[in-house]
Amino acid sequence: MTANNALERSVEHRPCAHIEWCVGRGRIGTGAGRSTRSLALMSKTLYCWRCKMPIPMLEESEWERLAPYLTNAIEQIKRYREAHGVSIAEAKTAGYGREALALYFDITGFRETNPDALWHHRFALFGPPCHNCGKPLRTPQAKLCAECGAVRPNFSSSGLAEARRST
């Protein structure tokens, strides 16, 4: 990680704080009717257990815009490997996920550097906040909090099974 990336990751990533940080350094312009307030309202921050930090998460409508870019990136890797006979690691250095990262930044104002991380930066993949520590449960079906070990109150796996059958 470069010193610049380390600095960016060290900023508290509530959308408002991140937007203000970027605007103050000339990374986001507020011209053409864009204000820091409207940018900050575009994404919601949630603690990501994989990244171990608060990250702007995508709503499903935003994910639908981003997913084709990630899928396209996988196809680009396959084509590059076939054309050049290189490993996956080598093919990933050839610009994998650049468009997806740019769109994620446009949507959230957060400069993610790892396109693979975008696959799990979706609200729908996380459960409700833990009643004990406040961190989100790892999945909507989680029975306990992986962060603090608290058991999810009023959780009925039979109710979850019935909900799955009805869909």
Task: Outline the secondary-structure elements.
Layout: H1 3-10, H2 15-24, H3 36-40, E1 44-48, E2 53-57, H4 60-84, H5 88-92, H6 98-108, H7 157-166
Antiparallel strand pairs: 1-2
Helix pairs in contact: 4-6
Could you list the spans in which at least 5 consecutive residues all have pLDDT below 50? 1-41
In sequence order, what are the helices and strands, one letter per element? Answer: HHHEEHHHH
Q: Which whole number gives the mean pLDDT?
A: 76
Count up the helices: 7
Within the largest sheet, what's the order of strands?
Answer: 1-2
Largest sheet: 2 strands, antiparallel
| Fraction of helical residues | 40-55%
Counting structural domains, the number is: 2
Backbone structural class: mainly alpha
* Radius of gyration using CA atoms only: 19 Å
State the end-to-end CA separation: 44 Å
Q: What global shape is seen?
A: elongated
Oligomer: single chain
Q: What fraction strand?
A: 5-15%
Report the count of strand segments: 2
Notable characteristics:
167 residues, mainly alpha, two-stranded antiparallel ribbon, 7 helices, disordered N terminus
Structure, described:
44% of the residues lie in helices and 6% in strands. The protein is mostly helical and 167 residues long. It contains seven helices and two strands; from the N terminus they run αααββαααα. Helix 4 runs antiparallel to helix 6. The chain starts with a helix and ends with a helix. The longest helix has 25 residues. It has two domains: 123 residues, no CATH class; 41 residues, no CATH class. A two-stranded antiparallel ribbon has the order 1-2.
